[in-house]
Amino acid sequence: MPEESLPGFLLRLACRLERSPARIGELCGLSTMHRRLPAGYLLTLPPHAVGALAGAARLSSAEAQGLTLAGSGLASTYSPLRTTRLDQSRNHAAARRRWAVDLSSRFCPQCLAGDGSPVQDALGGAWKLRWHLPVVFACTKHSTLLSSTCPQCGNLANRPPRTERPGLLMQRAAVGLHPAQCRQPLGGPRSAPTESHHCCGGRLDQSASKKPLLTSGDLDRVLAAQLHIERELFTAPAQGAENDPYFFLDLIAVAQLIKCSWPSGVSLVGSARFCELIDSHAIAITRQPEQARGRDYPLSNPWPAPDDAAQCAALLVTAVETLSLRHEGDAEFRDRVHPLARAAFERLTPNQAASFRRMDFSPALARALARKFNGFHRAGGHPGSNLRTPSRECLFAIEHVPALLPTAWWDLHSTALRGRMASPTNWNIRHLRRAAALKLAEMAAGGTWSECAEALGIPWATAQQSLRVLKRILEPTQSRPEFDRLVELIARNLDSDPQRIDYANRRRSLLPWSLSKEAWSEVSHGLKTLGGARTSPSPAAATALVWAQVTQGDYLHSPVLRDLRSSGRDTQHVVASVNQILRAACHRKGEKALLLDRLGCYASRLAHVCDQTRGSRPMTDEFTTEQHLPVRENERARWRREVR
Hints:
By secondary structure, the chain is mainly alpha-helical. About 50% of the residues lie in helices and about 0% in strands. The chain folds into four domains: about 5-130 and about 150-200, no CATH class; about 215-295 and about 300-340, no CATH class; about 400-500; about 505-644, no CATH class.
């Protein structure tokens, strides 16, 4: 039958041939030791089993494999199934925790009753594969919630007692049961496992007459959410089909947040009945921290989906509707999700919170969940945590972010922020430019501020100091929103720039570079007053300045100065030499100002060579002063501002 599961197919064969499912499995080549029917066969069949089943049941190989979740295509669209195994009891428990699959199938009594055809009148309708997925809670064909328990004994349809190892079917040796009869064991002698009267035998294809669980409005929301889920389940990710690879990962993560933070998410539910259903499921989880005090053993795991279809529907309808805000912008989505995360992480144990942070979900959800400190992703947690995600969807990469925001970018967008600052100094502005660069790196690559600083080549202590200055300047005047807007404007400019500069490549290319004696001789040609004192302009100082201009970094972090520090040598004379050049350039006259202009021209040529020789050490061209002088005044001013 369409969508029929392997367990359901074996039940129909067993009923028609008046044999036990264990015997049918043996005849079809599916049994293992002790006539076991492995639970893993629900996911996929090994090649030898496919051939045996196809030959015995006169099916094609595709039809035989189509009785499994993988063969039907559901494993390719339902992402939690992709890495799931069911070959051991422990793996089955892990699959339930991950909402991947449950051997105990939900069911629609009307579907099991059949469609009126002779075959289905005799043997009932198909047990559907989709009913084994926790995210399927309603039948859209009959507009009703699925059932999960037998109306006669109240037990789950195919979940064995804890004393029995999970398999493809429970009570597999029982004979004479209809495929829609409950197979839960009843109390009695264990010596007669083949007799059907030792099973419950209640008919699952007969709807119990009871008061409707949901109002018509709530049922409409349930069916709309189920249709949305089914579109994602049955949309093949191929040839232009629209398929959200993160939909189910995000759906499960948000559902977990709702129940673990309950009742923090009451405002998201929008239905008194849904609130009652979620409360009845979440109350055992929310009370666990209090119940666990003084115990030496863990309580039940909070992660599996609710067994009850109505509880699961209330939880997932709320999650689906919350996820719809992903497309309305990060701010709106974060406002809804972040309070849930904060409440959930406060309630969960450290191990449970760490487990959640290692879950897979989309960048949009990760941005909504990310904890912040001083405006940046907070350090801590597992190194592989998905919460360390880019804080913005960017077209530029971290390679396009300089270590020190160029003054042209700062001057263009900082008018509003400078208007709120009391008395900005060049040194404070320099720290703000560095903090803005760190924020751009976080937008593009994610991670904590220290990880961003490492990627940009900024020393940890310097980055920390810049963030302290940022906090000291912005908090008194409540200027954090202005700073965030400034960085966002720069990010938009980078997104729209078709000729973005790869500053990371420039930093790599110039790592072993230094100004040669020949190049220094050419740059200082005709400048008579540069030599003499220990702090006079030198090749080392010129190397630091050119490196800062090409990479848009801080000359204090240039390789030439870093190498001096690492070898234990004094850097004061080089720093003093740089400062002499910069102070003289501020007056826009004298030979040192002319030297700075020449170095600026040299840096422009060197930057071009770096961009043309990606991944290798650049070869500098010969430098002649006649080629580059006179320098236009606007170029002089820009160079002086950059290195200031």
